[in-house]
Write a structure and sequence with these properties.
Layout: H1 7-18, E1 24-27, E2 31-32, E3 36-39, H2 48-66, H3 72-78
């Protein structure tokens, strides 16, 4: 069964998870600056194994937002 994890779906989930409607998911290497979550490989019609990897990156990066644990440079930007 194929899985659809679009930028819109992931952004909405990140906003809910992080408690901030400004959060956006964007393509890129996995990281966050507190407002943007960058994830590789999200797309429509993924194999379940691909979706599992994207979900893992997603959960990890959103936890950084939730617990406010990003690099000092990123913390200066969002203050």
């Amino acid at each position: 069964m194929k899985v659809n994890l679009t930028q819109s779906i992931l952004s909405t989930a990140a906003q809910m998870f992080g408690g901030d409607e400004r959060i956006r998911v964007r393509p890129g290497s996995p990281m966050t600056d507190g407002t943007n979550v960058y994830l590789p490989g999200f797309k429509e019609n993924m194999e379940p194994e691909e979706a599992m990897l994207v979900r893992g990156y997603f959960a990890h990066e959103c936890a950084h937002i939730l617990y406010k644990s990003f690099s000092p440079a990123a913390q200066r930007i969002i203050r």
